[in-house]
């Protein structure tokens, strides 16, 4: 569909991306590794099981596209998102990204519990690649949006789960990127905050060059996305118009 | 591929070059320093004496150990306690590099799973914190030793130009310590029993080094080889020579430290090249 458009703005080009990861991670031991290295067999050999989380997937996303990833749990949607972000390494293939990326994953993690909310704005901002100056410039807006009152200057261990997510959401959406990668973050906070969060997302999407979204809310997908990609077993099943893809996907779900 | 000015371009295909990696480290340098300072703050937050604890801690241990050991080894308390103090702060740093270093990457999981941050940032963050605690301990040591000289007539000079040796010594300690922290951090990611084994290993190293034990013991002919290669002993020597014995550190000790540092960093860099990002599934 849109991959033939010549784009000058942000762009993602994925070529035969492959991501395998080991399944038997908790069973590896020093003993086995040492004896293995010395050429000894250590009991019954465990098959090195790997999961092909992303399996030879190619996809080009151009400026202005809002792509929704759908599929069952374990289809590789979140893994693909994190692979684009550079969190997971490729086993094979390549991913080329032009533009500043901003990922919204796990909003409740990556905070220093003993530090205040204000201090954590700095740490999290730095961890997603912004400079101290850029973060200070946006600090007041982030604090206003998170709406934590005097809690902003208290250690984060005193926060509720909802407050963690509110602060995380505010930081990630006020330090913007040209490419937004969003994984299931809409269930955050109370009804009032959710409403503001969705409104904020719409604003962001208006400005962002590219959106890649993972959510199980097909209604939200249809309202936000211009393109849907259906994934299964780490591979692409169907790619196209949101309504068409959603329909085929739902039909297959009913048939199963 | 043309790139618009002002936009970032990243191409990811398996492994990156050392140069690209160092560039990424440089981009995340602020994160490293801010997290190290957060560690220091949280360590002393909510305590009324705050950072002074980093000085009281080695002082209290020194007095305790010295009372027991000076009696046991039939030593003069004042002079012996200075020896113990110097050993304590040095050993506390070395043991912390290994024991805290082992957890350094795991404790950065929350950040590592959000963005492509170079993993090496996290052992370095831990080592920066340890180094600051070491310098605070050193300040406490200086005060204690001055007190012993002024009030108890210990026959040493308060300060000489030789104290400047502290700068390269602290630098060398950070260099070797951060290589060790990096190695154990990656090993501990895959093999979680490593941390337990390391604690035993470090205890053994403590017994086999002149941290509190008299240096002469290690001149025994049975220990010649071990004494020649033991990095902790070399550090004890370069540290105590200028401060306790009024002489410049010996070249021989620097060579031992240099070789250990070069080998350790070679291993640490190879491990980083092999494991960084691949081991994210173990974090």
Notes on the protein architecture:
The complex is a heterodimer of chains A (about 260) and B (about 280). With about 260 residues, chain A is α/β, with parallel strands linked by helices. Chain A has helices at about 30-35, 75-85, 115-125, 130-145, 160-175, 190-205, 220-225, 240-255; strands spanning about 10-20, 50-60, 65-70, 90-100, 100-105, 180-185, 210-215, 225-230, 235-240. In chain A, the strands form two sheets. A six-stranded mixed β-sheet of chain A has the order 5-6-7-3-8-9, with helices on both faces. A three-stranded antiparallel β-sheet of chain A has the order 2-1-4, covered by helices on one side. The longest helix of chain A has 17 residues, at about 190-205. Mean pLDDT of chain A is about 85; it is low at about 1-5. Chain B has one domain (about 20-280). Chain B has eleven helices and one strand; from the N terminus they run βααααααααααα. In chain B, helix 3 (about 55-70) packs across helix 4, helix 6 (about 120-150) crosses helix 7 (about 165-190) and helix 10 packs across helix 11 (about 250-275). The longest helix of chain B has about 30 residues, at about 120-150. The chains are: A alpha/beta (about 260), B mainly alpha (about 280). The interface of A and B includes residues 33, 94 and 123 of A.
Features of this protein?
heterodimer; A: 256 residues; Rossmann fold; 3-stranded antiparallel sheet; 8 helices; 9 strands; B: mainly alpha; 11 helices
């Amino acid at each position: 569909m849109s991959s033939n458009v010549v784009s000058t703005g942000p762009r993602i080009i994925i070529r035969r991306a492959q991501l395998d990861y080991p399944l038997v991670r908790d069973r590896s031991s020093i003993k086995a590794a040492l004896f293995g290295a010395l050429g000894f067999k250590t009991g019954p050999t465990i098959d090195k099981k790997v999961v092909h989380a992303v399996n030879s997937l190619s996809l080009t996303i151009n400026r202005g596209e809002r792509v929704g990833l759908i599929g069952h749990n374990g289809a590789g949607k979140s893994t693909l998102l994190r692979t684009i972000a550079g969190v997971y390494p490729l086993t094979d293939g390549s991913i080329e990204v032009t533009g500043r990326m901003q990922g919204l994953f796990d909003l409740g993690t990556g905070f220093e519990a003993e530090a205040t909310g204000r201090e954590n704005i700095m740490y999290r901002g730095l961890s997603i690649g912004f400079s101290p100056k850029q973060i200070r410039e946006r600090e007041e807006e982030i604090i206003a949006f998170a709406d934590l009152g005097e809690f902003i200057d208290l250690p984060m261990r005193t926060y509720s789960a909802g407050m963690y997510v509110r602060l995380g959401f505010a930081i990630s959406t006020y330090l913007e990127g040209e490419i937004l990668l969003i994984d299931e973050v809409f269930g955050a906070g109370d009804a009032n905050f959710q409403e503001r969060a969705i409104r904020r997302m719409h604003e962001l999407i208006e400005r962002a060059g590219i959106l890649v979204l993972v959510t199980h809310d097909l209604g939200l997908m249809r309202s936000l996305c211009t393109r849907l990609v259906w994934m299964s077993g780490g591979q692409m099943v169907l790619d196209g118009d949101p309504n068409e893809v959603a329909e085929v996907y739902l039909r297959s779900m009913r048939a199963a | 591929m043309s790139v618009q000015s002002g936009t970032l371009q990243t191409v990811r295909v398996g492994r990156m070059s050392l140069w690209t990696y160092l560039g990424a480290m440089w981009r995340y340098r602020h994160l490293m320093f801010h997290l190290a300072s957060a560690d220091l703050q949280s360590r002393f937050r909510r305590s009324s004496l705050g950072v002074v604890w980093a000085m009281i801690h080695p002082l209290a241990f020194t007095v305790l150990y010295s009372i027991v050991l000076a009696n046991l080894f039939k030593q003069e308390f004042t002079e012996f306690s200075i020896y113990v103090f110097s050993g304590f702060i040095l050993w506390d740093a070395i043991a912390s590099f290994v024991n805290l270093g082992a957890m350094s990457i795991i404790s950065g999981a929350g950040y590592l799973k959000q963005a492509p941050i170079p993993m090496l940032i996290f052992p370095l963050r831990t080592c920066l914190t340890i180094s600051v605690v070491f310098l605070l301990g050193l300040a406490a040591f200086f005060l204690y030793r001055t007190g012993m000289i002024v009030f108890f007539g210990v026959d040493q000079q308060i300060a000489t130009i030789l104290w400047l040796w502290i700068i390269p010594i602290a630098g060398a300690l950070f260099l070797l310590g951060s290589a060790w922290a990096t190695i154990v951090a990656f090993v501990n990611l895959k093999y979680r029993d490593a941390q337990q084994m390391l604690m035993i290993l470090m205890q053994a190293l403590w017994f086999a080094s002149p941290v509190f034990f008299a240096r002469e013991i290690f001149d025994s002919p049975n220990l010649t080889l071990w004494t020649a290669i033991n990095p902790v002993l070399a550090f004890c020597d370069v540290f105590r020579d200028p401060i306790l014995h009024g002489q410049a550190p010996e070249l021989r000790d620097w060579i031992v430290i240099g070789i250990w540092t070069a080998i350790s960093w070679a291993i640490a860099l190879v491990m980083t090249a092999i494991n960084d990002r691949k081991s994210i599934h173990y974090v």
